[in-house]
Amino acid sequence: MKGLKYISIILIILLMVTACSSNVNIEDEVAEYEVVEEHVPADGGTLVLSTTRFKTLNPIFNRNEDLFQIQHLIYESLVTFSEDMSIEPLLAEGWEFTNGEYGQSIDFKLRRGIKWHDGETLTADDVIFTFNLIKGNIKGVSKVSIYKQSLEYITNIVKVDDNTVRVNFSKNIGNGLEMMTFPILPEHIFEGNKVQLLNQDDFNIVGTGAYELKEYEKMRNISLVRNDNYWKKKPYIDEINVLIVPDEEAQLSLFENEGIDFVNPKVVDWGKYVDEKITNSAEFITPNYEFLGINFRKNILHDLNIRKGIAYSIDREKITGNIYLGHSTVVDFPILPNSWLYDDSKIQLGFNPNLAGTFLDEAGYILDENNNLRVNEKGDIIQLKLITNANNSLREQTALLIQEDLKKVGIQLDVEFLEWEDFEKQMNTGNFDLLLGGWELSYIPDITSAFHSSKIGNTNFIAYSNEKLDSLLDSYLGNGDLTSKKQRFSEIEEHLVTELPYISLFFRNGAVLVNNKIKGDLKPQSYNIFANIEEWYINVKE
Q: What is the pLDDT of residues 69-80, one digit of tens each?
């Protein structure tokens, strides 16, 4: 990759032409030229990152988001997510679906010759060992893996040969490939009496990734060096130092003072940390989804016209602009809009108060211009209660804007900000009409927990029950064929945007801020903010 530096040269020409009969002055003619200076990347340099404090370096048990992202530099999985969240090969060069004894099976063929950082060869035994660790099948290891629940329907993984594993599922699973995105650990480092190393907070870091461990100073610094035996394109940057700091505030302060080169801020006003002279930035969509849940225990909300009236009255663009400073992406259903499963051809809900009024009229609630409230023939008004969690200023501000929007179309909305314990209690007992909340959606696309009738009384706290949607969700989850999956999910999206069990608001956006001494294209993804790091560089060839 070549970096380009543009230098504008302003040329001012003053010509004095003297003739016998007259003097002609031609002044201030400006010609602007662009001279391109080409940068050719060169190896070398050190990138300084940071992470907040964590409990373990073991990627199977780690729950720290900063460290999760950094571990993409060290560890790899059989497959991974591409930019559109589809699955692409990584340690596995390919796979084949087969019929197993109890259901679907997938055979994964490992790439040959991949080496661990200590020089040992990656084999099928490493994959099986990691799976057993996640499932809790390793004697002497009691910690619960963050990946365990996602592997619920995998019965076992067996070795076909040194470079092939067969993953057996208890039933046909549509997301079988996505389940295999967990990092692989080396069995030979931890087998036998060395299994206790898995429990140690500073356990031995050995992966197959682009960077390997140079030194670890406990709770101070992780020093990485480029893996010169890396099987893919080797990165330009030689070393990465990861400072371990108390919290995000310390990270932002360090970045402002050029103590670190890179930061992934969680605050919505991250733009104030961008100085165009010294900072590059790139925004991306996170899996943090905000929505308005409709309580189907309430008779008035069974009326689709009421739900549509509410949906079209909410100015989501105003919420994202005024409260989230533009750092969010409006959506109509709970699937990442950059996902290959997102179908933007479906009905698009917009801000349309007039249309909202029409739907409310059709529901039998006519606007009384004397008090600006909608009243039906019995004299009943539309009065609803919205709950959300207190001490979350973004949600509180959003709730108040929604209250204003609904008031304009004649709906009285009472807003309650509840402490988390009370919020959960009212959510679980159904003591609300509307609920302003959020999900951090899994990278494995599955919204069964929110909408399937079997989840009522649990994660389906809106008590939504619909046989058609149940059937669509079951069909989607039971089919691994990509064309069928996309078709089923498109039908699910159409159902959600038509029936409105949730009124989708937006996904929050994230960002990476990088000191501009780091050159190369920034292509962060929510799953891997260091995507494309092999093209970043600091040094240039003279």
A: 999 999 999 999
